[in-house]
Each structure stands twice: as C-alpha cells, then as structure tokens.
C-alpha cells in the first residue's frame, strides 16, 4: 500500500482552480490566473486589481427575491507527497509534512435575494512521517487529521458591497506565488468582513477594499512555521486580528493600481477585555498612526503589526504586467526614519508576467517573481528580527501554526521562473525555483534548487492538475555536506457536477 500511493503521486500535483462562473469558492492559482491573463489580453474587466481575493472570483449579479438557487460546488480531492522532508506552500489547510497527505472538499452554495450561504468544509489527513531534524522540524511521527470549516461563509450582497462572516482563504496584494500579508498558505480563519465585490467608481478612480476582524488559533499537533517547524505551543490562547486591504486605480493612468495592506494582531481575551471604545477595541488598525513618534506606548502592549504598499501596472498592448509589494514589520520612529532606513524590518515581492498570444485561446505565459524576507544588512546597525517576527506575539504571524503570508518559510528568500503553454483548459509548463532558508548568521547556507513540471488537462466533467518538483537541498538543515534530494508532488482531481 505504501509503495502504491507513492507510485500514483510520483509525478503529480495541483496548481489550478475550478471554472465557476457565479459562485466564489476558494483561492487556488489557475482560475485566478486565467482571469488575470484575460485582462492582459484585453478580454476581462480592466478595473479589477487582482489584489483582493474577495472580489477576484465573484461574478456580480442582481439580487433575485422571487427565485432561490441551490448549487452543488465542484468536489475537490487533492493529494500530496514529500519523499524526504516537508516542502510546498499555498496549500491551505494542508500542513508541512513528510509523506502522504490528502485534502477533500465538497460544497454547496445557496442564494436568495441579497443573501448567500456557502458550506465547503475541508478534511485533511497527513501521515506526517518522521525526518532528520538537527536544527529543523518536528520530531513527531504521529499522523495528523482535522476537519476545517474551509471555504464557507454567510453574507449579504448589496450593490458593490458585501458583508458577513467567513472562513474562506484570502489573498491580498499583487503577488502570484507569494503575498506578504495574506495568502492561502494557512487554513482559512473565522472572520467578519465588509468589503467590495466589484470596484467602486469615484471621481478620482476605482476603489476596492476589504476590512476584517478575525480569530486566530494554534495547535499542539504540528510545529510552528515561524520557528522552523519546531514545537512551541502556548495553549488555547487565541489572537484577534484586525486587517484591511485597499486598492486604488487612478483614473488618469490606465492600468495602474496602487494599494496598501495593514494587519494588527493581539491576544484576544486581553485586548477585548481592555477598557476602550468600539474602534480602539475592535478596529484598532483604523486609528493607529504610521509613525512611532505619534504612539510610543504601542511597544508596551502585547500586539504586533505588519503593513505593505503595492503597485501593479497592466500593459494590455504589450500583454504584460509588473508588480511590487513592499512591507514593514515595525513602525518607523518618524518620516525621517523611514527615509534613512528603508530596508529596516522590511520585505518585498516583485514580479513580471508576459503573454505571447498565438490565437484567441492559445498563448505562451512567461513569468518571474522574487520574494525577499531575510533581514537586510541593516540588522548590523539595528536588529529587527526576520519578517513575521516580533517579540510581543510568541506565535508569530500564524494561524494553526502556519504563516498567513508568504509561505516559502521563516526568513526565506525565493526566486521563481516559469514558462507555460496554454490552450484553453490544457496547460503544460515548467518552473525553476531557488530558495535560501533563513541565511542570516548561518555558517552553512541551506539553499534549495528545484525544477518542476505543471500540467493541467480536462476530461469530461473532471479537471486534473498536477505538479512535480525535484529539489536538491544543499546543506539541508544548515548542515555542511548534507545534500539530499526530495520529490514534492501534488495531484488534484476536481469533479464539476454540471
């Protein structure tokens, strides 16, 4: 049995989403990329920023009080295998584990008038095999299984605005492989929200936003991604997260999107029981200043904040785009501090995508993206810790022990290049990736080099997506001369009921 599942998965993986036209469902790369590519080709709404998952996949329609709808959502069955040690990210409720892992997700969507309800739970099982861990990983050989609410929500839609309660994954910012503050690397978390489901037209351009208040939790079953997968459990101390994303498309510059994301987390019982007004207690991210000079008392509180600014510029005549997201995990003392130390406590993602059309549905997709999260040389003057680390919150920027932003790893630097041939639902591509694992202050540098194959095809009502990556880890776990090979593979089967 053990050999058979390895044989089935040896060359496979996911990297795509369903082709839903009327329901939002989840956030996986291919469907979003299809719409994003159509925008580059001039065939999709040019006002959508693709920097807020909340409105990326939703097709907005008129409310119908006379007729309700009930829809079976596609059934998703995802399998994953790592042969030597954990690898992979942007896989939602799946965990960092060696061996076989599976995620199953059924779903239904119901709509009546302005109200919409979706139930899409996720069941995860991982064999979670043991692996060599001198400085890295969890010495835990117990299997892992859990049921999550998954991509579920209850909401009301009115015009361009939507509000409700959800456990869906969110993706904020323009990145394709990485997002600094919000991605689908961790399981979706319980949150209340209000945001746009389509761009709002204003005299100065189009606006999109999403504002959330969320509950973050931890588990004793797996190690923390913010601690190189080492165990560090603080019991059932939940954290309250208040975050927003806002994107603006100036009407004077075609194709340009400017935006900001900001998150603040604090221990839930402690913060919500503190005497304060409604805004200070539940929406503190709205009123906080951007300079420490205006709020020195923040360092005395047990809370942590992150912020990022982003730019995306679409060039439809060239069938191309480029984007940048720049983030800070600490206040600047004042504006002068931001100017004099721009790399202090910072991280960034930058990318470029170019399409080479051959016909209406056939094109070549070329893309490259880099993400830098290790400390810059500025730490020699003023130490800030790695990205996602702040002393006030021991769990770091995580939910269920998984990083909610860029999933490449704690203090990692990632470079990706890929080329894909697209012909409708048929895709065939490859990618090359290089990852530096927390390189600062390491005598031996741990670097992963990988090459991967990412096909996708359709058979009747089924879509199959696969990914296989062969990885060579130089100085694995920062041990000189320890250079193992690892095979990371995923296979996703999605059955569409109509």
Question: Would you spell out the secondary-structure blueprint of this structure?
Answer:
Blueprint: H1 2-9, H2 29-40, H3 53-56, E1 69-72, E2 75-82, E3 99-105, E4 108-112, E5 115-119, E6 122-126, E7 144-148, E8 153-158, E9 161-166, E10 190-196, E11 200-202, E12 205-216, E13 239-250, E14 256-267, H4 268-272, H5 278-282, H6 284-287, E15 303-315, E16 320-328, H7 335-340, E17 346-357, E18 362-372, E19 398-399, E20 402-403, E21 413-423, E22 426-437, E23 446-453, E24 456-459, E25 462-474, E26 485-495
Antiparallel strand pairs: 1-4, 2-3, 2-26, 3-6, 4-5, 5-8, 6-7, 8-9, 9-10, 10-12, 11-12, 12-13, 13-14, 14-15, 15-16, 16-17, 17-18, 18-21, 19-20, 21-22, 22-23, 23-25, 24-25, 25-26
Characterize the main sheet.
Answer: 24 strands, antiparallel
The secondary structure category is mainly beta
Strand content: 35-45%
Q: Tell me the number of helical segments per DSSP (H or I, 4 or more residues long).
A: 7
Number of domains: 1
* DSSP helix fraction: under 10%
Q: Just give the CATH class.
A: Mainly Beta
Using only C-alpha atoms, the radius of gyration works out to 22 Å
The end-to-end distance, rounded to whole angstroms, is 34 Å
Number of E-state strands: 26
Q: What is the molecular shape?
A: globular
* Integer average pLDDT: 85
Quick tags:
single chain; 498 residues; mainly beta; Porin; 24-stranded antiparallel beta sheet; two-stranded antiparallel sheet; 26 strands; 9% helix; globular; disordered N terminus
């Amino acid at each position: 049995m053990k050999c058979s599942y390895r044989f089935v998965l040896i060359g496979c993986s996911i990297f795509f989403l369903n082709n839903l036209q009327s329901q939002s469902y989840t956030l996986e790369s291919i469907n979003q990329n299809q719409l994003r590519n159509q925008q580059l080709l001039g065939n999709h709404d040019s006002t959508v920023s693709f920097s807020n998952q909340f409105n990326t996949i939703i097709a907005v329609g008129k409310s119908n009080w006379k007729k309700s709808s009930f829809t079976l959502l596609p059934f998703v069955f995802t399998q994953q295998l790592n042969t030597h040690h954990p690898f992979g990210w942007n896989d939602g409720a799946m965990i960092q584990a060696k061996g076989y892992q599976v995620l199953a997700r059924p779903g239904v969507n119901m709509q009546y008038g302005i109200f919409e309800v979706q139930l899409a739970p996720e069941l995860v099982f991982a064999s979670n095999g043991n692996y060599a861990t001198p400085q890295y990983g969890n010495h835990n050989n117990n299997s892992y299984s859990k049921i999550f609410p998954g991509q579920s929500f209850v909401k009301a839609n009115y015009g361009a605005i939507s509000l409700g309660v959800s456990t869906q994954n969110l993706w904020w910012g323009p990145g394709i492989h990485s997002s600094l503050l919000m991605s689908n690397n961790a399981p979706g978390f319980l949150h209340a929200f209000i945001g746009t489901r389509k761009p709002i037209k204003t005299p100065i351009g189009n606006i999109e936003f999403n504002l959330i208040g969320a509950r973050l939790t931890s588990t004793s079953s797996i190690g923390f991604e913010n601690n190189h997968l080492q165990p560090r459990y603080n019991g059932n101390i939940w954290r309250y997260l208040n975050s927003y994303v806002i994107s603006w498309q100036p009407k004077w510059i075609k194709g340009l999107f400017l935006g900001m994301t900001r998150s603040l987390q604090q221990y839930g019982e402690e913060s919500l029981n503190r005497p304060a007004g409604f805004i200070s207690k539940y929406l503190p991210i709205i009123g906080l200043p951007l300079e420490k000079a205006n709020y020195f008392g923040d360092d005395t509180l047990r809370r942590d904040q992150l912020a990022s600014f982003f730019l995306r510029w679409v060039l439809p005549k060239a069938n191309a785009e480029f984007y940048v997201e720049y983030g800070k995990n600490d206040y600047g003392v004042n504006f002068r501090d931001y100017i004099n130390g721009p790399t202090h406590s910072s991280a960034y993602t930058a990318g470029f995508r170019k399409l080479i059309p051959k016909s209406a549905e056939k094109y070549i997709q070329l893309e490259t993206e880099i993400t830098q999260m290790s400390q810059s040389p500025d730490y020699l003057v003023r130490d800030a810790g790695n990205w996602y680390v702040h002393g006030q919150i021991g769990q770091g920027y995580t939910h269920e022990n998984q990083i909610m932003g860029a999933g490449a790893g704690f203090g990692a630097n990632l470079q990706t290049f890929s080329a894909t041939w697209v012909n409708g639902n048929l895709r065939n591509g490859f990618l090359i990736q290089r990852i530096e694992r927390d390189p600062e202050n390491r005598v031996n540098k741990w670097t992963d080099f990988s090459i991967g194959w990412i096909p996708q095809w359709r058979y009747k009502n089924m879509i199959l997506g696969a990914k296989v990556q062969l990885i060579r880890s130089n100085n694995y776990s920062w041990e000189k001369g320890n250079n193992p090979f690892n095979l990371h593979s995923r296979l996703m089967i999605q059955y569409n009921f109509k």
